[in-house]
Amino acid sequence: MHNSASAGPPAKPRVGSSQVSEASLKRKRGVFQKDLQHMMYGFGDDPNPLPETVSLVEDIVVEYITDMVHKAQNIASKRGRLLTEDFLYLVRKDPPKLHRCTELLSMHEELKLARKAFDVNEETLATAD
Amino acid sequence: MKDPFEAAVEEQESPPESPIPPEEDAAAVADAVDGDEEEADARSQPPASAPAGAPAAGGGGKGKEDDDEEEEENMDVEFGKLPSGGDPDKMVKMQAILSQFTEEQMSRYESFRRSGFQKANMRRLLTSITGSQKISIPMTIVVSGIAKMFVGELIETARFVMTERKESGPIRPCHIREAYRRLKLEGKIPKRSVPRLFR
């Protein structure tokens, strides 16, 4: 006799961290949902975008990223590992994106240096005490 | 007279910062940046021919975003470090535009600046795509930046489609699909060398 206590077919594991962490093909839905809602509002959508629109945009973005990464891997395979430069190469024909990426990277460097300087200062202050 | 928001959008050859969450000292850096932002906000008030509504809306909007801030580590809009990157002429223009924003425009601009993909989620996605563990932080930063700009292109094109069809209200999936189709025609979407068989 069947005594299945579960409500229905097992849904995708929501908290199955062990399953999800290994290059799992199951993609959780709504991973970027919250971020996307803010983003879409910022770019011109309603303050409360329609959920189906958000889902669709998420699908499109994940597909876009996937295709980009595969292209980058193709480029990188000749050389070896996948590097950040491969992505920069991919957007070389798109000046706004390229400019934005270089800007982000240089800001990241600046922050790193600033943080290092901050740590050094902390040390000298600590030893001074 | 050009809509100040449109003008601000056009100014964006170097779009404003995406958040770059630090690995350690998240609290320390966030506090430091918060301090900056307060100063910058105070600075932007003296050009006070501007309606007091705009900086107040910035403050109110910041309150709403604060919960997100805790989780998303470093989403601060650095008004002191505007996209011009130190170019005084551009900074003046930016301040002039920002001071004239309505409350709605300010809130939208704030969302535009602060929104971004969570680094953890992005890293997880990239790891699952590449199958390898070697996803460096700069890589997540770059991909997040590119993806955000792509979302921008999608939404703006969708809005354009809506004005053509003379529709209003929230964007619907049909608009997004049409926008996606147009972007594809423009060649802005990377083409799959192998067609996708199973979704």
Account of the protein in words:
The complex is a heterodimer of chains A (129) and B (199). By secondary structure, chain A is mainly α. Chain A has two domains: 61 residues, Histone, subunit A (Orthogonal Bundle), CATH 1.10.20.10; 36 residues. Chain A is built from five helices and no strands. In chain A, α2 crosses α3 and α3 packs across α4. The longest helix of chain A has 34 residues. The termini of chain A are far apart. By secondary structure, chain B is mainly alpha-helical. Chain B contains eight helices and no strands. Chain B is extended and about 50 Å long. About 31% of the residues of chain B have low confidence. The chains are: A mainly alpha (129), B mainly alpha (199). At the A-B interface, α2, α3, α4 and α5 of A face α5, α6, α7 and α8 of B.
Short description:
The complex is a heterodimer of chains A (129) and B (199). With 129 residues, chain A is an all-alpha fold.
Helix segment tally of chain B: 8
In percent terms, what proportion of residues of chain B is strand? under 5%
Question: In percent terms, what proportion of residues of chain A is strand?
Answer: under 5%
Order of helices and strands of chain B: HHHHHHHH
Largest sheet features of chain B = none
Low-confidence stretches of chain B: 21-81
Shape type of chain A: extended
Largest interface between protein chains, with number of residues from each side: A-B, 63 and 72 residues
| Average pLDDT score of chain B | 70
CATH class of the largest domain in chain A reads Mainly Alpha
Number of domain units of chain A: 2
Span between termini of chain A: 75 Å
| Strand count of chain A | 0
- The portion of residues assigned to helices of chain A is 55-70%
Largest sheet of chain A: none
Q: How confident overall, as mean pLDDT of chain A? A: 82
The end-to-end distance of chain B, rounded to whole angstroms, is 48 Å
GO biological process, one term (chain A): transcription by RNA polymerase II
Keywords (chain A): Nucleus, Transcription, Transcription regulation
GO molecular function (chain A): protein heterodimerization activity
Family (chain A): Belongs to the TAF13 family.
